[in-house]
C-alpha cells in the first residue's frame, strides 16, 4: 500500500471518529459505558492524527513508511467495519435539549447506546490497537496517563463553542457581577502587603494539602492578595483561583444561588462549555419560559466543574488515577452577608462542601469573628486568627503609599511623615478603616502646614466610634433627618441600595402634606456630602445604576446597637417611631375560635397598611372573606400595622392585602388569613388542619391574590372577561380578519363594541397562568370550598366564573389566538391543572363530592413544599366517610413512603379495582424507595399517556377495556405491607422489542416499522398494526370499523389519525405472536399478565423474591377479557 492510500483510509476513519466522538460528548460523564467508549474514540483520534502527521512528513525514512503502510493495510478490514458502524451512529439525529433529559432506559433503546453497539466499538478499538502495536512502538505513542493532557486538548477542540453560545449560557446563568468590586479591590491593593500570611506555613499547608479549608478570622487581610498570589490579577482569565465577593452590586439577592452562579461562571472557560453546565442549560432553556435551576442543581454542577478524580482517558490505563488541576475557592467577607436564613444557608453549604474533602479543592473564607460563622465553620480543617501586629506592618506600607501619592503630603519633611506613620499605625490597632478616615481628614487640611498637621494628629479620635461621632456632629442641622433616613435604609437593606433610591427617600416627609415633593430630591453628590466618609458609591457616579452602601458592615452595631447579631433573632421592628412588634394571643380550640383581620380602607394605594386582629368563634356565624395566596419567587418580608403594632408577613401577602384594601368607606374588610391564624404548637396543628375546610366553606367568598399587575399578562385579563360574551358570528369575523389583515391588532366587529385583540394574546394568557397561585396545592381547597371566588389581579377583581367560561371555550380560544399558540397553551401544565380544578369545582358546587383519586388526577401538576401535602391538602374536599378511613390518618412519625403506601391501600380497598397499578406505572421516578405498585403521589405523570382514566380521572370516566373480566378478587398485603398479592394469569412474555416512540429520538417511520414487524410476523395485518399503535381508541372511545385508507401502512407519522399513545412506549412481539404497545423500560423476557379485576394487561419483571411491576400495556386481541376465561385457573403474584 502506498502512503497516499494509507492517508486516505486513515483520514476517512478519523473524520468519522471525530463526528461520533462529538455525538457521544453530549452524554459526557452520564455513565461509565459512555465514558469508556469516549476514551476509546479519543485514543483513536490521537493515533490517527499521529499517523497522518507522520505520513505527511516528506523526509520520513522509507522503511518507516513501509511499516506504517503495511500496518494500515493489515487492519484495513477492521477499519472498514468500524467506519460502517460510525456512519450508522452518525445517522442518528444530533442530540438536542430534549434529548438531554432522556431517561437512561429510553436512551439505551436507540442504536448508539445499545449494549451491542458499544461493545463492538470497543472491540474494534482493541483490534486496531493489537494490529498497530508496531506503529505504536515506532511512533513512540504514549498510551498511559501522561498523554491525558494532549488528549484533553483534542477533546476541547472537538467540543469547542462559539462566543455567542458562551454568551447565551452566561446570560441564562446570570452570575453576580464581580468585576467592579474586583477592580476596586485591585485599586486598594498595595504591593508588598500580606506577605506575612502568604509566606506562612498555614498558607502553604492550605495551598498544598488535598481538600484543605481555611477560615481567616479578623480584619486587615483582603482575599485579593491571595488571589494574585495564586493566579494573577485577572478575574476572567484565572485558571485555578475563583473569588466571590459577598457584597454583590446592582441589587443582587444575597443567597446561595448567586454565589454558586458566580463560581460556576468563573469555572467555565470561554471557549468550551463543560458538559455538566451544558446539560443544565439545555434542560432549563428548552422550556417556555426558560426555568431557573434549583440550588441542588447548581451545587451538582459546581461539583462537576471542580472536577473530582476520574479515570484516565486511555482505556488501557484504567488502574491509574488522574488528578484534576487544583481549584481554589475564595469567599470574601462572609460577615457582610445580611443576617437571616440566607446567610445561614450559605455558611452551612460551605461547611458541607469542605466536609467532602475533595482532593483538588481548597476553600478559603474571610470574615470577622462572629458567633454564627464560628459555629457554622467549626469543623473546618484550620482557622487563622489575623494578628493585628502583622496587619500594622501592612498599614505602614499603605499609609506610606498614600502619603507618597498625595501631592501635599508627599512634600512634607521626613519628620512629619514619620509622625503621621507613627500615630496612624501605632494607634490604629490594626484598624485599616480608622487609619483611612484619619488620612482623609489630613488630606482635607488647608493650608497644610507642619503645625496644622501636628495639631490634627494630636486631636485624633481614639477609635472608630469616636470617629463616627465626630462625623455625625458635622452634619448640618438642616440635614439631620435626611442623614438619619439614609443610615436607617442602608443599614437594614438586604441588598446594596441605589443612589437614585436614596434620592427619593430624602424627598419623603410622612408628617407633611404632600408627603413627597419632587423638588426636594437631592442630587447624587449631595448624598456623599451629608455623610462624608460613612458611605461610598461603587461604581463611580458615571454609571446609570449606582449602588450606594455603608463603607463597612462594622458600622451597623455602632449606629443601631440593638441589632447586634446576638439579639438578631429577637423580633425587633424598626421604623421612625421604633414601634414594638405585635404578639399573637393564643386561640382556644375547644370553642372553634379563629383569628380574623379587619383591613382598614385607605385612599393612598401605597400608604401604610393598617388593620386590627381579633378573635371570634365560628359558631357565632361571623362574616368574613377567606384569603388565598401563594408566595412568589424570591419572596421577602413586609410589614403591616396590626392593632397599632408592627406585624411581619410575607411580601406577597402584603402586596395582596394592598390590592384587597378598600379605597373609601368607614368599615374595614374582614378577612381570614392562614398566616395570622396558624399556630405551630404541636397540640394545635391537627385541630387547625381539621378546621380549615369549615373556615373556607363558611366564608362569604374566597379572595384570591394573584399579585400585582404586569405588562406581560395584562391583556389576558381583558381577554378572560370578553371571552364569554363573544358570539359565534363575531368569532368567525375575527378569524377572517386575522387571516387577511396585518398589523398590530385585529379588530373585533364594531357592532358588539369589543376591544381590539392585541398580538401576542396567546403568550399573555400563558404568562397569566405562570403566576404561582395556579399550581400550589393548598389553594385548591381554598378555591373550591366557598360558593363564590374572586381573583384579584392587582386591585382589579374578576370572578372565577369568568375563568370557568374560558376553560369551556376551547374552540373559541383556538380560533382567536391561532393554532400554534393554542397548542402551546393547552400543553402547559399550569393550564391543564387549572382547567381540571375548574371542572371538579363546578361539579362540587352542584353537590358532588370528588373522590381522592379524582382529586389526585386534577392536581397532578400542582406543587407542594412537603411531598405528603400532595395528598393531605385535599382532605377537606372528601366526604366524611372517606376522611375517616384508618389508612388516611396522617402520622407525623411515619415517613412519606409509609404514608403513600397507606394511601394506596386505602384506594385499593375503597374502590375495589386495580386502577392504581396503571396510575403507579406513570407516577414512578427512576429512583424510588416505594414498592413498584405504589405511586409516588408527589410527582407529575411521565410522558406516556395513560391507556384509560378510570378511578383516576374525572367523575364519570370509564374504561374502554376489560381485560380482567368480572373475576375481581380483592388484593391482599403480605408481611410488612410492601408486598401486594394479586390473582391473575401469566399468559405471555415479551420476545422482540422494536424502536421506541420518543420525542428525543429520530422520527419513527411507520412504514419502516410496519415492515420490520411484518418481517417477524408474516401474518400481521394493517388493521392489527394500526389498532395497536393507536391503542385501539380515539376521543375516549374504541376505534370504529376499519377504514381502508386509514390502515394503509405507507402513511407517515403526521398522517396517522391518533399517535399520542405511542409516546413513551414501544411495539413488541410476544412469544405467542401478539403485537403489543408497552412501556419503554420493558425488556425481552418480561412477563405479560392479566390480573383479576384489571382493565388492561401489565408487564412484570421476574425477581428472585417475586415480581416488579414495569407498567400497563396494550396487547392486541386480549383487551376484552379473551384470556381470563372461567376455565382458567388464576395464580398468585407477589408484587414488590
From TrEMBL:
Cross-referenced Pfam families, in alphabetical order? Het-6_barrel, NPHP3_N
Nephrocystin 3-like N-terminal domain location is: 192-368
Q: Specify whether Repeat is a keyword of the entry.
A: yes
Tell me the superkingdom of the source. Eukaryota
User: What are the coiled-coil residue ranges?
Assistant: none
Keywords, in A-Z order: Repeat
The molecule here is called: Nephrocystin 3-like N-terminal domain-containing protein
Recite the lineage of the species.
Eukaryota, Fungi, Dikarya, Ascomycota, Pezizomycotina
Amino acid at each position: 500500500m502506498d502512503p497516499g492510500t494509507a492517508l486516505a483510509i486513515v483520514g476517512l476513519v478519523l473524520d468519522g471518529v471525530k463526528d461520533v466522538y462529538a455525538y457521544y460528548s453530549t452524554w459526557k460523564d452520564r455513565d461509565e459505558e459512555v465514558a469508556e467508549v469516549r476514551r476509546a474514540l479519543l485514543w483513536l483520534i490521537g493515533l490517527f492524527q499521529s499517523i497522518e502527521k507522520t505520513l505527511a512528513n516528506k523526509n520520513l525514512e522509507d522503511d518507516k513508511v513501509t511499516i506504517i503502510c503495511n500496518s494500515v493495510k493489515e487492519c484495513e478490514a477492521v477499519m472498514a467495519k468500524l467506519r460502517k458502524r460510525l456512519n450508522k451512529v452518525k445517522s442518528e439525529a444530533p442530540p438536542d435539549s430534549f434529548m438531554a433529559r432522556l431517561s437512561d432506559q429510553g436512551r439505551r433503546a436507540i442504536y448508539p447506546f445499545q449494549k451491542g453497539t458499544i461493545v463492538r466499538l470497543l472491540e474494534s478499538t482493541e483490534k486496531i490497537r493489537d494490529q498497530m502495536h508496531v506503529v505504536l512502538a515506532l511512533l513512540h505513542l504514549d498510551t498511559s496517563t501522561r498523554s491525558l493532557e494532549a488528549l484533553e486538548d483534542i477533546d476541547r477542540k472537538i467540543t469547542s463553542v462559539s462566543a455567542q453560545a458562551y454568551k447565551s449560557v452566561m446570560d441564562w446563568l446570570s452570575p453576580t457581577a464581580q468585576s467592579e468590586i474586583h477592580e476596586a479591590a485591585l485599586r486598594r491593593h498595595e504591593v508588598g502587603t500580606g506577605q506575612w500570611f502568604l509566606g506562612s506555613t498555614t498558607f502553604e499547608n492550605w495551598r498544598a494539602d488535598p481538600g484543605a479549608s481555611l477560615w481567616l478570622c479578623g480584619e486587615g487581610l483582603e482575599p485579593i492578595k491571595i488571589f494574585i498570589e495564586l493566579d494573577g490579577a485577572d478575574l476572567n482569565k484565572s485558571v485555578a483561583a475563583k473569588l466571590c465577593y459577598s457584597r454583590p452590586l446592582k441589587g443582587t439577592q444575597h443567597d446561595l444561588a448567586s454565589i454558586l452562579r458566580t463560581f460556576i461562571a468563573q469555572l467555565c472557560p470561554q471557549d468550551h462549555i463543560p458538559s455538566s453546565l451544558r446539560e443544565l442549560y439545555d434542560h432549563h432553556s428548552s422550556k417556555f419560559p426558560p426555568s431557573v435551576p434549583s440550588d441542588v442543581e447548581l451545587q451538582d454542577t459546581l461539583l462537576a466543574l471542580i472536577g473530582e478524580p476520574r479515570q484516565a482517558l486511555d482505556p488501557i490505563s484504567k488502574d491509574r488515577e488522574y488528578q484534576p488541576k487544583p481549584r481554589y475557592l475564595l469567599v470574601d467577607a462572609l460577615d457582610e452577608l445580611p443576617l437571616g436564613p440566607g446567610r445561614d444557608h450559605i455558611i452551612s453549604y460551605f461547611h458541607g462542601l469542605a466536609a467532602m474533602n475533595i482532593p483538588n479543592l481548597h476553600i478559603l473564607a474571610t470574615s470577622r469573628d462572629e458567633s454564627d460563622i464560628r459555629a457554622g465553620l467549626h469543623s473546618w480543617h484550620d482557622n487563622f486568627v489575623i494578628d493585628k501586629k502583622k496587619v500594622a506592618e501592612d498599614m505602614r506600607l499603605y499609609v506610606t503609599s498614600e502619603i507618597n501619592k498625595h501631592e501635599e503630603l508627599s512634600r512634607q519633611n521626613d519628620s512629619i511623615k514619620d509622625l503621621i506613620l507613627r500615630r496612624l499605625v501605632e494607634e490604629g490597632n490594626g484598624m485599616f478603616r480608622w487609619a483611612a478616615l484619619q488620612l482623609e481628614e489630613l488630606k482635607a487640611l488647608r493650608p497644610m502646614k507642619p503645625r496644622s498637621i501636628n495639631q490634627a494628629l494630636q486631636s485624633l479620635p481614639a477609635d472608630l466610634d469616636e470617629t463616627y461621632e465626630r462625623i455625625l456632629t458635622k452634619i448640618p442641622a438642616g440635614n439631620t433627618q435626611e442623614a438619619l433616613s439614609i443610615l436607617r435604609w442602608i443599614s437594614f437593606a438586604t441588598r446594596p441600595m441605589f443612589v437614585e433610591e436614596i434620592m427619593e427617600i430624602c424627598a419623603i416627609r410622612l408628617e407633611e402634606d404632600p408627603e413627597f415633593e419632587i423638588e426636594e430630591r437631592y442630587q447624587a453628590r449631595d448624598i456623599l456630602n451629608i455623610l462624608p466618609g460613612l458611605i461610598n458609591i461603587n461604581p463611580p457616579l458615571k454609571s446609570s445604576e449606582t449602588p450606594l452602601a455603608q463603607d463597612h458592615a462594622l458600622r451597623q452595631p455602632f449606629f443601631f446597637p440593638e441589632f447586634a447579631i446576638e439579639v438578631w433573632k429577637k423580633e425587633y421592628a424598626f421604623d421612625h417611631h421604633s414601634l414594638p412588634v405585635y404578639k399573637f394571643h393564643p386561640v382556644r380550640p375547644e370553642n372553634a375560635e379563629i383569628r380574623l383581620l379587619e383591613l382598614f380602607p385607605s385612599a393612598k394605594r401605597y400608604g401604610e397598611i393598617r388593620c386590627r386582629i381579633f378573635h371570634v368563634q365560628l359558631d357565632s356565624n361571623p362574616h368574613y372573606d377567606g384569603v388565598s395566596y401563594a408566595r412568589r419567587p424570591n419572596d421577602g418580608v413586609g410589614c403591616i400595622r396590626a392593632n397599632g403594632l408592627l406585624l411581619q408577613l410575607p411580601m406577597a401577602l402584603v402586596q395582596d392585602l394592598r390590592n384587597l384594601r378598600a379605597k373609601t368607606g368607614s368599615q374595614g374588610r374582614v378577612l381570614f388569613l392562614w398566616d395570622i391564624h396558624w399556630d405551630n404548637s404541636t397540640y394545635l396543628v391537627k385541630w387547625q388542619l381539621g378546621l380549615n375546610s369549615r373556615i373556607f366553606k363558611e366564608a362569604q367568598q374566597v379572595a384570591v391574590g394573584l399579585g400585582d399587575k404586569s405588562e406581560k399578562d395584562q391583556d389576558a385579563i381583558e381577554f378572560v372577561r370578553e371571552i364569554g360574551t363573544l358570539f359565534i358570528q363575531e368569532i368567525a369575523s375575527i378569524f377572517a380578519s386575522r387571516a387577511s389583515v396585518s398589523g398590530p391588532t385585529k379588530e373585533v366587529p364594531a357592532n358588539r363594541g369589543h376591544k381590539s385583540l392585541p398580538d401576542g394574546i396567546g403568550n399573555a394568557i400563558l404568562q397569566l397562568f405562570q403566576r404561582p397561585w395556579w399550581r400550589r396545592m393548598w389553594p385548591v381547597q381554598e378555591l373550591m370550598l366557598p360558593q363564590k371566588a374572586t381573583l384579584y389581579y392587582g386591585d382589579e377583581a374578576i370572578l372565577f366564573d369568568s375563568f370557568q367560561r374560558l376553560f369551556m371555550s376551547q374552540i373559541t380560544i383556538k380560533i382567536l389566538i391561532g393554532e400554534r399558540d393554542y397548542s402551546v397553551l393547552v400543553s402547559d401544565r399550569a393550564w391543564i391543572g387549572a382547567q381540571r380544578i375548574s371542572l371538579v369545582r363546578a361539579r362540587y358546587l352542584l353537590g358532588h363530592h370528588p373522590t381522592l383519586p379524582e382529586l389526585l388526577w386534577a392536581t397532578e401538576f400542582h406543587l407542594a413544599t412537603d411531598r405528603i401535602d400532595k395528598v393531605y391538602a385535599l382532605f377537606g374536599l372528601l366526604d366524611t366517610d372517606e376522611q375517616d378511613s384508618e389508612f388516611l390518618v396522617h402520622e407525623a412519625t411515619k415517613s412519606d413512603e409509609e404514608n403513600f403506601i397507606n394511601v394506596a391501600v386505602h384506594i385499593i380497598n375503597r374502590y375495589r379495582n386495580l386502577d392504581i397499578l396503571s396510575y403507579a406505572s406513570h407516577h414512578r421516578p427512576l429512583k424510588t424507595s416505594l414498592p413498584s405498585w405504589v405511586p409516588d403521589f408527589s410527582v407529575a405523570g411521565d410522558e406516556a399517556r395513560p391507556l384509560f382514566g378510570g378511578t383516576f380521572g374525572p367523575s364519570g370516566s370509564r374504561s374502554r377495556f376489560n381485560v380482567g373480566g368480572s373475576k375481581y378478587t380483592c388484593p391482599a398485603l403480605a408481611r410488612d405491607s410492601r408486598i401486594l398479592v394479586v390473582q391473575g394469569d401469566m399468559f405471555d412474555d415479551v420476545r422482540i422489542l422494536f424502536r421506541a416512540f420518543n420525542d428525543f429520538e429520530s422520527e419513527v417511520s411507520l412504514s419502516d416499522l410496519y415492515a420490520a414487524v411484518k418481517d417477524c410476523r408474516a401474518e400481521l395485518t394493517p388493521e392489527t398494526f394500526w389498532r395497536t399503535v393507536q391503542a385501539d381508541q380515539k376521543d375516549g372511545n374504541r376505534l370504529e370499523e376499519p377504514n381502508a385508507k386509514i390502515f394503509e401502512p405507507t402513511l407517515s407519522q403526521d398522517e396517522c389519525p391518533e399517535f399520542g399513545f405511542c409516546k413513551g412506549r414501544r411495539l413488541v412481539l410476544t412469544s405467542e405472536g401478539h403485537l403489543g404497545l408497552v412501556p419503554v423500560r420493558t425488556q425481552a423476557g418480561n412477563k405479560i399478565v392479566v390480573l383479576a379485576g384489571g382493565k388492561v394487561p401489565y408487564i412484570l419483571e421476574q425477581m428472585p423474591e417475586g415480581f416488579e411491576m414495569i407498567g400497563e400495556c396494550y396487547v392486541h386481541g386480549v383487551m376484552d377479557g379473551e384470556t381470563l376465561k372461567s376455565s382458567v385457573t388464576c395464580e398468585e403474584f407477589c408484587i414488590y
